[in-house]
Amino acid sequence: QKIKITFMEYIPYTFTKVAKILSLFKRDKIELCHAHYALPYGISAYLAKQIYGVPYIVTLHGTDVHKLASMPALKAVMKLCLENANAVTTVSEYLKRTVMRKLDITKEILVIPNFVNITRFRKKPGCGVLKKEFKIPKDNFIVTHISNYAVIKNTLVIPEIAKIVLQHHPKTTF
Questions:
Q1: Cβ(90)–Cβ(111) under 8 Å?
Q2: Looking at the predicted structure, is the pLDDT value of residue 117 above 80?
Q3: What is the dihedral of CA 28, 31, 34, 37, to 10 degrees?
Q4: Digit-coded pLDDT (tens) for 3-40
Q5: CB 98, CB 131: distance < 8 Å
Q6: pTM given for the model
Q7: Of 122-126, 138-142, 148-152, 168-172, which range is least confident?
Q8: How far is 138 from 132, CA to CA, in rounded Å?
Q9: 107: which residues sit within 8 A by CB, 6+ positions away?
């Protein structure tokens, strides 16, 4: 199955974003840029650093690491972007190791986990506001997907997963 990536499919979108970001840096005298995704936002930040001297941070996500870093035509651009960033972060140790291997990155990559800290955020007894608001029985589990529905996340299996979960836990609300 072919994975469609918006900014690769619509090249003018990328150039429009780069031009807009650069105009904002010039107009607003921005002091720091935090780019989510190396392409196109990180490379835009790289250009802003070259033109206006603005430092930048790039946070890498799965699309950067699994798809873009595997495309030979983009490897050099991604590496340029990351090696020149003032800081690089990613959301897991796995993504960090993978991008370092795929792009031969020597720069330190800081892992800032992209999840809920379940030791800090736990279900509190008697806290049923969501269940009350949506008229969900008190003894039901609630399962949800909180993200975008990108093809790479294989969200088409959610109905299959729901069926399996309901077979094992019939008191579940999706």
A1: yes
A2: no
A3: 70
A4: 555 555 555 666 777 788 888 888 888 888 899 888 88
A5: no
A6: 0.64
A7: 122-126
A8: 8
A9: 82, 83, 85, 88
Q: Please tell me the distance from the alpha carbon of residue 86 to that of residue 46, in angstroms, as a whole number.
A: 10
CA distance 28 to 12: 24
Q: How far apart are CA 82 and CA 80, in angstroms?
A: 6
Q: How far is CA 18 from CA 82, 91, 112, 160, in A?
A: 17, 24, 26, 40
Q: Show the DSSP H helices in the chain as ranges.
A: 6-9, 11-28, 43-52, 62, 72-83, 93-103, 129-133, 158-168
Structure tokens that stand for 113 in this block: 């986990």
- 12: Cβ–Cβ under 8 A, 6 or more apart, which residues? none
Number of Cβ within a 10 Å radius of residue 142: 11
Please name the amino acid found at residue 4. K
Measured between alpha carbons, how far apart are the two ends of the chain, in Å? 27
Q: Is 23 exposed, middle or buried (0-12, 13-18, 19+ CB in 10 A)?
A: exposed
Total residue count of the chain as it appears in this document: 174
Residue 127, pLDDT > 70, answer no
Check: CB of residue 38 under 8 Å from CB of residue 56: no
